[in-house]
Design goal:
13 helices, five-stranded mixed beta sheet, globular, about 350 residues, about 15% strand, alpha/beta, six-stranded mixed beta sheet, disordered N terminus
Length: about 350
């Protein structure tokens, strides 16, 4: 019996070794990938940039050096705002970004970045991966010659930095404010003039008064950008970005040219970026908030009546975009149906 077991163990080890050898040979036969990747975010910017840098480093390790993607700082390779067209044309292989930046190209893509009064990360990922969201995401990018993979998610963002305390919705009217994505459309509904300014340009704009207020990201990120030096009133919750999804945007022909193994390796690297982004994002906010308080920042929570007004305006924005854009209508229908079904589980399974 012991001999039989030894033979079986030997056979199993032999089969495993053969499988490993076969996988290694298949990997060796794959043409090596050497891509250039532009980025919207600097590689040293907490989460927004570091997630992209760690993703390509992880992919190098996963592939044993077979896939190497060079991370280029914002505007070093191309202007960040040109990522969509440059990657589609093949002049750049890939871009580290978020779909919310492409509202002007395809309004529906913003639904895959961050949705006002939208879901937390777990619910959002459920819709994207298992509720039909990604199939729509992919079908919208395909005609543009682009392939995009969900490649990270971060925790809720703050709602904004203001020089003066906001006591009513009327205090917001007339302000010039940096704002991102679909939330900017909501702010415009209440009389805010919005601009989409890159992260590194926000502080100078705030300091010289070309904008009155700004939102950007979560406390640990905003702290490092120094907004507290100019604006001392910091508002929560981030109704416009309860979770934010990032993407690896790739030229579709380049993606299609990869082997199944290489595509799987990129998918795995992006999947682990979700783990890193969510876990790190939740872990680092408490200390950042404590430091901001020490620096004299007053932290506010929006009154419910202001949140109610903002949500009402968001519903108007969503209805208008769905009425004028067929892709947005399809995405909105899928998203709202999923959330309605999910709400039953959410109300039963989670503490309020």
């Amino acid at each position: 019996m012991k001999i039989g077991k030894s033979i079986k163990a030997g056979l199993a080890a032999g089969v495993l070794s053969a499988a490993i050898l076969t996988a290694g040979l298949a990997q060796a036969e794959d043409e090596r990938v050497r891509w250039n990747m532009a980025s919207w975010f600097p590689s040293n910017l907490t989460q927004l940039g570091t997630l992209g840098k760690s993703m390509v480093d992880r992919l190098d390790r996963i592939s044993g050096g077979n896939i190497q993607i060079k991370f280029f700082e914002p505007n070093a390779l191309i202007p960040a705002k040109e990522c969509f067209d440059a990657v589609a044309a093949g002049s750049v292989d890939a871009c580290w970004s978020t779909p919310g930046y492409w509202y002007g190209k395809e309004p529906s893509l913003a639904m895959f970045a961050a949705v006002p009064f939208g879901p937390r990360a777990g619910e959002y990922m459920g819709w994207i991966y298992y509720g039909g969201g990604y199939e729509l995401w992919d079908s919208i990018y395909e005609p543009h010659g682009l392939k995009s993979l969900p490649c990270g998610v971060i925790a809720p963002e703050a709602s904004g930095w203001f020089r003066k305390e906001i006591t009513s919705i009327d205090d917001l009217a007339g302000l010039k404010m940096r704002f991102f994505g679909l939330g900017a459309k909501v702010m415009e509904k209440i009389g805010v003039s919005t601009q989409l300014i890159a992260g590194g340009d926000i502080f100078p704009a705030l300091e010289r008064g070309s904008i009155d207020a700004t939102e950007y990201s979560m406390p640990a990120i905003d702290l490092n950008l120094g907004f507290y030096q100019v604006a001392k009133h910091y508002y929560f919750p981030g109704w416009h970005q309860q979770s934010t999804v990032f993407e690896l945007l790739m030229n579709r022909a380049a993606w299609d040219a990869l082997s199944d193994t290489q595509q799987a390796q990129i998918e795995v690297a992006c999947g682990d970026a979700f783990r890193e982004g969510l876990a790190e994002g939740e872990a680092i906010q408490g200390a950042a908030l404590a430091e901001l308080k020490e620096k004299g920042v007053t932290i506010h929570r929006w009154p419910q009546e202001i949140l109610d007004t903002l949500e009402e305006k968001w519903n108007e924005v969503a209805a208008e975009d769905a009425a004028r854009d067929a892709n947005f209508a399809k995405v909105w229908e899928s998203y709202t149906a999923y959330r309605a079904e999910y709400a039953v589980w959410k109300n039963l399974g989670y503490l309020n």
